[in-house]
Amino acid sequence: MMIRDYTYRVDGLLLGIETSCDDTGAAVLDETGAILGESLHSQKEVHLRTGGIIPNVAQHLHRENIERVVHEALERSGVEPSQLSAVATTVKPGLALSLGVGLGFSQWFVRQHKKPFIPIHHMEAHALTVRMFHPVAFPFLVLLISGGHSLLAVARGVDDFLLLGHSLDEAPGETLDKVARRLSLIKHPQCSTLSGGQAIELLAKDGDRMKVSFTTPMGQIYDCCFSFAGLRNEVTRTIMKKEAEEGIEQGTLLSCVNDIAAATQHTVAAHLAKRTHRAILFCQANGLLPLSSPTLVLSGGVASNTYIQKALTIITETTGLRLLCPPAKFCTDNGVMIAWNGIERLREGIGILPPNVGVFYEPKAPLGLDMTAAVKAAAIRLPSVRIKIPS
Ligand code: KG4
Ligand code: ZN
Fold first, then answer.
1. Cβ < 6 A, ligand 1 pocket
2. What would the mean pLDDT of 256-263 be, rounded to a whole number?
3. 209 closest CA partner among 272, 256, 274
4. Where are the beta strands (DSSP E) in the chain?
5. Which of 9, 5, 20 is nearest to 338 (CA)?
6. Do residues 115 and 355 lie in contact, with contact meaning Cβ atoms separated by under 8 Å?
7. Which end of the chain is more exposed for a tag (fewer CB within 10 A), N or C?
8. Residue 282, SS3 per DSSP
9. pTM for the model
10. In a 3-state reduction of DSSP, which class is residue 116?
11. 31-48 mean pLDDT
């Protein structure tokens, strides 16, 4: 919804609030994108111990921390609520119980301080974060890969996206987390505090991916969607076979964890690289990217994986794109990216609401115009590209 007759300042200070998943984040940015103050409470350790995110535990932890986190961000910035130009908060997509906490708090806050409210789409925020650090003009291609999402989209404007592909089942970070859990990596001395994806990346460094072989998903489907559940089943079957061979029970570390980690990471990287390669060819065939400096932006928690970055670099070098990634800290969920999205919307005058307008959260919310059928119909065959990454 766009309210045109509401007056607001386009310069000034933005408070961003994020609670869509398992991070309670807040940040204050000025109109240039300078971070004046931020605070982040991560629930990752709690969820690591319970073997995944339990929504009502996440909700409880957001409730316990939201007020302190927002207060800390404001205090560190030296900004009073009265000085803010607006408040931007994630309202979609995400876990209902988590979104509700951030939205409820924000609505109370904007009414209390009589501030405009800017509802934020979490994936739009991930896609735009790069523009805080690099002067990337629209349009650009973006690959977002995290524990909750995987999508390929063309960003044509602040709130103008073409969706080329998304996951048909689970997200790559979710797959890596589940494989890590099945391998009991939490018991590995080097991995006890790492997320599943981080643990797999670390162990893969000393593994030989050629010792185990997994099938790259969707080889016969010529679109840009992703699927990781089949790969996870294949990895699980291999783990069961190895446990039988080594005569050990589930829950005990296998001697070949490094090789399984390396092969899993490689197959995830190859799948992401192939779908992205097809998305680039689709964009080039349809004039969706500029001829000068066409760009692929990579973001989301899984984007910090250097092996996956290298696989995508092979694709961008082959197709003449440059690859840009926000700094690792800003690839994962935080209040900064939400505040930045608020600034981008404030500059364009898009989606700025008066404090008293009722806003609802949306657990499911696709990003942009769905082009997946057109991509599938184009059925682009890929030239063969070797994803060979020296360890
Ligand atoms: O963006 P994020 O912090 O949270 C959301 O899912 O929205 O991403 C977390 C995900 C987890 O699944 C984690 O295992 C994965 O990102 N991850 C990684 C790496 N670091 C975090 N996956 C692969 N390699 C990494 N280095
Ligand atoms: Zn996220």
1. 21, 146-148, 173-174, 176-177, 195-198, 201, 300-302, 304-305, 332-333
2. 98
3. 256
4. 13-18, 23-30, 35-42, 84-92, 117-121, 140-145, 150-157, 160-166, 295-299, 322-324, 369-370
5. 20
6. yes
7. N
8. helix
9. 0.94
10. coil
11. 90
